[in-house]
Amino acid sequence: xxxxxxxxxxxxxxxxxxxxxxxxxxxxxxxxxxxxxxxxxxxxxxxxxxxxxxxxxxxxxxxxxxxxxxxxxxxxxxxxxxxxxxxxxxxxxxxxxxxxxxxxxxxxxxxxxxxxxxxxxxxxxxxxxxxxxxxxxxxxxxxxxxxxxxxxxxxxxxxxxxxxxxxxxxxxxxxxxxxxxxxxxxxxxxxxxxxxxxxxxxxxxxxxxxxxxxxxxxx
Length: 219
Ligand code: AMP
What we know:
This protein has 9 helices and 8 strands.
């Protein structure tokens, strides 16, 4: 039987979870489940949920566990997760990790591998302050480290409109890193003790990291 292509990408903000998740989605044709993206869509749509979380997200704090777990439970009720999935930005607390185990049990899915993307703090701060994405197709760039080939024009779709995330200011980035260390880093030991963790050096060129992740998933 084919190995289920499923993983949790665990790492600080700016460690490349979103970028790598998109690559895995394309390569294996599996859903990329990003709780941050789901919440940002709700804010964009002006929904009640979006209004509830807007301030919290802009401040760099975490949204309440119950709300996030409900979102993920709904997402896992869809059939497409049965062929695999990439979780990006969830779980972020021990409580969320316990809930994920329940959700997977309900969906009759095994616990996936947990790939830790390890990047030094200063590199994370440099990466996050200056991040921008194409307003039309979502391709992610960086003003200094990875600008579009032609200044101001998206490589992929030619759009000239770019957006920055509200929570990528230096002050909020530092807060998000502190929140990561306090709330999310304990998941490294949590999953290591369950024999599910693979730590990867993610301070490398993007393609090298993708290859390492694919290697882990095909093992
Ligand atoms: P991300 O795009 O994953 O960096 O998430 C952006 C923001 O969305 C976070 O700083 C939190 O405010 C919120 N968020 C996303 N995922 C979660 C989660 N699993 N638990 C709590 N808050 C979350």
